Each structure stands twice: as C-alpha cells, then as structure tokens.
Automatic annotation (TrEMBL):
<dbReference type="GO" id="GO:0046872">
    <property type="term" value="F:metal ion binding"/>
</dbReference>
<dbReference type="GO" id="GO:0019825">
    <property type="term" value="F:oxygen binding"/>
</dbReference>
<keyword id="KW-0813">Transport</keyword>
<dbReference type="GO" id="GO:0020037">
    <property type="term" value="F:heme binding"/>
</dbReference>
<protein>
    <submittedName>
        <fullName>Group III truncated hemoglobin</fullName>
    </submittedName>
</protein>
<dbReference type="InterPro" id="IPR012292">
    <property type="entry name" value="Globin/Proto"/>
</dbReference>
<dbReference type="InterPro" id="IPR009050">
    <property type="entry name" value="Globin-like_sf"/>
</dbReference>
<keyword id="KW-0408">Iron</keyword>
<keyword id="KW-0479">Metal-binding</keyword>
<keyword id="KW-0349">Heme</keyword>
<dbReference type="InterPro" id="IPR001486">
    <property type="entry name" value="Hemoglobin_trunc"/>
</dbReference>
<dbReference type="Pfam" id="PF01152">
    <property type="entry name" value="Bac_globin"/>
</dbReference>
Amino acid sequence: MEPAIPPIESDAERDKLEIAIDDCVRRFYAKGAEDPLLAPIFATIDGLDQHMGIVTNFWSRTLLGTERYQGQPFAAHINLPIEPQHFTRWLELFSESANEALPKMQAEQAIAKAAHMTQCFQSGLFPFVDADGKPSRAPAQ
Ligand code: HEM
C-alpha cells in the first residue's frame, strides 16, 4: 500500500519539491552511470537529458499530482534487455537517491511507488518460471 500524502497547497513548497525531484532523478542516473549492472542499459538511452525530463515529469505527477507525464511506463521497458536482478539494483539506487534528495514523507511515497512498479513490471515481463523456478520471459522447456 502506498502511503497517503497530504496535498501541498503552497506554491513555494511545490517549487521546492519540484527542485528536489529533479535532484533525485539526476542523482539516480549519475549512480546508474557508475553501476556495473545498470550502466550498459542506461548507456543506450538516446538523449539522456530529455529522458531525465520525462522521468522527472513522471515523479512530479506521482508526488505532486501534476499532469506533466502522460506516458505508458511499462511499454517503455518491454524490449529492454532487463532481468530480475536489474530491478533489485534499480530499486536500491532509486531508494538511495530518494532518501538523499527528497523530504522524508515524499521519499517514502516515491520508494513505495517504485517498489510496487518493480513488482508490476516483473509480473508483466517474466510471467513464467524457468526450470530452476526463477521468473522467466518464456515457459520452461
Ligand atoms: C530494471 C529496472 C529498470 C531499468 C533498467 C529501466 C531503464 C529504462 C530505460 C532504458 C528507459 C528508456 C526507454 C526508452 O526510451 O526507450 C526507461 C524509461 C522509463 N522508466 Fe525505467 N527502467 C527500470 C525500471 C523502472 C521502474 C521501476 C520505473 C517506475 C518507478 C521506471 C520508470 C520509467 C519511466 C517513467 C520511463 C519513461 C517512459 C516514457 O518514455 O514514457 N523504470 N527506463
């Protein structure tokens, strides 16, 4: 269950949070670029600044209820060469970034949302189990 968050009424508070979200996203991609598991995948992103802008809009929508993000996040991941271990690392680095950049309440909300989405993405991408019982894109042979 994602924690409920009271609406932020003051423009100054919202502006501060937008800056913190931008900081969180930049920290996350800086960590990703240094990470042996995730860096090769992030390196394929065409136009990193534009991509970070899209992801910032996603978190602005999640944390502030703006309508700047209108995409389909799952679809963007279907053809990526990702496996369950990438999600574990992704969530670790995202959680670090959120805890460093966001106020505590919004960090908790963002991490809960990210954790839920990593579960949903994995259920969609790996609907089968392989011969060793691990999540898999294809049925066991
Ligand atoms: C294994 C973990 C993940 C990896 C390696 C990964 C990597 C990527 C990459 C490479 C893209 C760009 C795809 C493209 O433009 O073609 C992307 C897009 C995106 N990702 Fe992830 N991602 C992961 C998990 C997640 C999770 C858990 C979330 C949500 C909390 C998320 C949110 C997004 C969003 C919002 C976009 C932009 C989609 C759009 O263009 O509308 N990602 N991701």
